[in-house]
Amino acid sequence: MAGYAIAQILFIVFLWFNHINFPLNLEAMELLRVQHLQRLMQGLPLYPEPSSDFVALAYNPLSYVLTVPFAIVFGANLFTMRLVAILGMAGAGIVIFLAVRRQIQSNWWGMIAVGLFAAAYRVMDTYLDNAHAESLLLFSILLGCYLIDRSRNWMIECFAMLMFVAAFWFKQQGAIFAIAALIFLTWRSGFRKAWAYWMISGGLGAGLYAAMPDWVLGSRFHYFTWTVPRQWVEIQYWEVIRFLKLILFSYPVLAGVSLIVVLTQVQKLRHNIWYFMFPIAGLSGILATMTPGSNNNVYIPMGTWFIVVGVMALDRMMPRLKQFGLHFFAIALSFALFAYNPMSVIVSGQSQTVYQDFVSYLKTLPGTVYAPWIGQLQDQKVFSPSLHWVPLDDLVRGKNSDPTKHPPLEKLLQSVVQPKGKAYLLHNLPLEQDGRLSFLQQNYKLEADLGTRFQALRTLPKHYTLDYPRYLYRHVSK
Q1: Which terminal CB of the chain, N or C, has fewer other CB atoms within 10 Å?
Q2: What is the longest distance spanned by two Cα atoms in the chain?
Q3: How confident is the model at residue 319 (pLDDT cuts 50, 70, 90)?
Q4: Quick check: pTM over 0.85?
Q5: Exposure pattern of 424-448 as b/e (b: 16+ CB <10 Å)?
Q6: Cα separation of 422 and 45, whole Å?
């Protein structure tokens, strides 16, 4: 079993090398995140007023800031942002091993836990080595928990609290873990000793967020990171079903044994941060379900807790399970439920050649080109405007959104709706299938279906998979 776990880990390491130099999006927002990094390095605001030049993503900014030192060395590009994400994923794996080994006193169980984490790469929507904040969020939460678990030193606990505050600044989802960590430390240490933890979380977390001046990150920082995400909140039946199916089809054993052990060890919650955070991780998944339209990356912290606490739970239940060999069955079944076709996550060896063909093709078009699912390339500006589909959708999606009415989008896309000269639109899907931009059908007609010409540039599989640039539309005058 340990051999299979090691094989899963080695395969992930292979994927890191396979993915890091891929020239286009592995996930829809990667190139847009590069734009954010480039703006930061140019001294431009990350969260300006929405315009035809740029609309920001609704995420907190720490991942961009943390990437700057790496970008100074390697450039503000996909390679650099993926490198930072890979370091975060590797760090998360190391902390998982150390945490499980500390709790169980077994290298074997530690390796099984990391192997399960690696095997869950596809279940976690192949995000952890993409140019995103997911791995950094996860690493900071795990490291904070590990530091709290291994030491009662006041300074170390303060540093752990800093990790949880950092998790919030990586992504808003980290806030629930920061609040939970603050409650845990206060419960364990008492209010008299906990004042420093409250100062750290209040001063560098909520306080700094609330007081952030416009000149630091841009005049619309709070709008994009607070107002915009709030309007997404909605409970939809099919999202609840999707959430339950994810648990039942991917984590039934690990989630089940975790729940059993945590419920039977309630009296130890005050002294075991991993057990204490288990319902918090579950709550993070429930809250994520209330933002329809997201990929399964929003369930990564929950899934990781199922793995970590699940392995700890299997060890605790070992005396009963071992006599029937059920612990091996539980581990094997968990690995089996994570199984996927490995070829589906290996990018084409022809991607660089096809990318050069792609750029050359774009330069032959006699007019401006708008590619809503790309935004802008990392190394040259070939698209105009460079507005990305995701932040445009972020501005208008929510329970009161009417997909047939798009006044904010039409205003931002005025240069696309009424270009001054010849203009093209390059899409990954037929335009009529794009609920947000289908109104452009009255302005654009299909010029060419490029078929599989750029198939080597397809994104990695996600819950919402976007494939590759294929459909070219030409602007037509009315």
Answers
A1: C
A2: 77
A3: low
A4: yes
A5: bbbbbeebeebebbebbeebbeebe
A6: 31
The residue type found at 369 is V
User: What are the backbone dihedrals phi and psi of residue 105, each rounded to the nearest 5 degrees, phi first?
Assistant: 60, 45
Contacts of 211 (CB under 8 A, 6+ apart): none
Domain boundaries, the chain: 2-344, 349-475
- Cα gap 384→142, rounded to integer Å: 41
The count of C-alpha atoms lying within 13 angstroms of the C-alpha of 402, restricted to the half-sphere facing its C-beta, is 5
Measured over the CA atoms of residue 62, residue 65, residue 71 and residue 73, the dihedral's sign is: negative
**Per-residue model confidence as pLDDT tens digits over 206-229:** 999 999 999 999 999 999 999 999
Q: Find the length of the chain.
A: 478
Residues 309, 99: Cα–Cα separation, whole Å: 10
Amino acid 432: pLDDT = 93
With helix as H, strand as E and coil as C, how does the chain read? CHHHHHHHHHHHHHHHHHHCCCCCCCCCCHHHHHHHHHHHHCCCCCCCCCCCCCCCCCCCCHHHHHHHHHHHHHCCCHHHHHHHHHHHHHHHHHHHHHHHHHHHCCHHHHHHHHHHHHHCCCCCCCCCCCCCCHHHHHHHHHHHHHHHHHCCCHHHHHHHHHHHHHHHHHCCCHHHHHHHHHHHHHHHHCHHHHHHHHHHHHHHHHHHHHHCCHHHHCCCHHHHHHHHHHCCCCCCHHHHHHHHHHHHHHCHHHHHHHHHHHHHCHHHHHHCHHHHHHHHHHHHHHHHHCCCCCCHHHHHHHHHHHHHHHHHHHHHCHHHHHCCCHHHHHHHHHHHHCCCCHHHHCCCCCHHHHHHHHHHHHHHCCCEEECCCCCCCCCCCCCCCCCCHHHHHHHHCCCCCCCCCCHHHHHHCHHHHCCCCCEEEEECCCHHHCCCCHHHHHCEEEEEECCCCCHHHCCCCCCCCCCCCCEEEEECCC
d(CA 36, CA 57): 9
- pLDDT above 60 for 117: yes
- Identify whether the C-beta of residue 185 lies closer than 8 Å to the C-beta of residue 157: yes
Q: Which residue has the tokens 């709008």?
A: 223
Q: What are phi and psi for residue 120, nearest 5 degrees?
A: -80, 10
∠ CA(284), CA(308), CA(298), 5° rounding?
30
**Structure tokens given for 377:** 């390339």
